[in-house]
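So, does this match?
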Amino acid sequence: MLGWQFSEYTPDDEGSIFDKLLKLFQELLLHTSGNVSEALSWLTELDRKYHLTSDEYGMADFIQDLMDMGYITDGEASGMPGYVPTSKMEIALRRKALEEVFGKLKKTKLGNHSTKFDGKGDELASELRPYEFGDSLESIAVSESLRNAHINHGIEQFKLTPEDLEVQETFYQSQTSTVLMIDISHSMILYGEDRITPAKKVALALSELITTRYPKDTLDIIVFGNDAWQIEIKDLPYLEVGPYHTNTVAGLELAMDILKKRRNPNRQIFMITDGKPTCIKKGKKYYQNSFGLDRTIVTRTLNLAMKCRKMSIPITTFMIARDPYLVQFVDQFTKANNGKAFYSNLQGLGEFVFLDYKNNKRKKR
C-alpha cells in the first residue's frame, strides 16, 4: 500500500501527567512561599477533587520523580524538616515566571543594551574606517587591509603600511545597574486578596530577564515593609508578607544608596507594590497611617521620586492592584519621577497597562 497510514495518537500518560502536575506544583509552591509539604498537601487535595492522576501514575510517583529529577530533596541534610526545593526548582520557577509575564519578548544577544553611539565599543558594525593610533589589533579588518596594500604597492614589492590598514567600526554597549524593590507589607494579602504571589512572579521574571539576557548588568534586590533590607535572588520564591506597613520612603532611600555605590551612569529602580505608602520614619519612631493617603507620607514619597529624577534614576512601578485611588497615587508618583508604570489586576499578570510619562505613551501589553 502506497502512502502513509495514520492511527490515533495517544500521548504518553505518565509524561503528560507529570508536566501537568509540575506546573500546578510550581504555582502552589509560590503560594506557600516554598513550603513543599504544604504545596504537596494542596496538590493532593486537588487530585482528590479533580482526579489529576491515574491508577498507573499517582502522587507517590510524582513525588519520586520530583526527587529523581532534582527538583526537591530531603531537608534533613540541611536541618530542615520534610522536603525542600533545590536550586534547580528555583531556576525553574524564575524561568516559568519569565515566560508567563514576559513571554512575548523577542530574543536578543546576551548582555546587550544597544546604543546609537559608535566608538571603541564591543559590538562589531558593518562599517570600516581608516586605522587610527590606539586602535586594537583585534579590530583590524585583515582582508580589506591586505587588499589596500596590494592596490597601493603592488604584488612584487608588497609592503603593509599604517595607511593601508582599515578597522571595523564598533558600537558602544551600555551597562545598567538595577535595584528591584518588593513590597512585603500586610496590605499585599489584605481583605483576602493574594497580591504577594503575583508580585513574586513579576520579581522572579524580572530577575531572570536581567541575569540571563543582560549578564553584564548588576541587580540588587530589596524588600520593604516598616523598614527596607537586601535579599538574594534565591530568596524570592520564599518571600512572605509580615505585619508591616508600607514604608516606600525607606525602600527608595536604600535603593538610592545602593545605586550611588555603583559606578555606572545607567541606573534604574523597579518597584513592585500595591501602591499605597503608609509609613515613614521620624527619628527613631515610625509615623504610620493606613487610612487613605496621608499627606505627610505622600509628600515624602513624591519628594524622593523627584530626587531620583534629578539623579537620572528612572523608577518603573509594577502595580499589583487596580484600585482607583491607588492608581491615582502611582500616576502622580510616576509623573513626579518622569518614569514608567505597569498596572495589572490579580488575574491577568501577562497583560499590563503601560504608562510612560517620559515619552507620553499609554498602551496595553
Observations:
- DSSP finds nine helices and 15 strands in the chain.
- Residues 107-111, 117-122, 353-357 have pLDDT under 50 and may be disordered.
- Residues 106 and 213 are 11 Å apart (CA to CA).
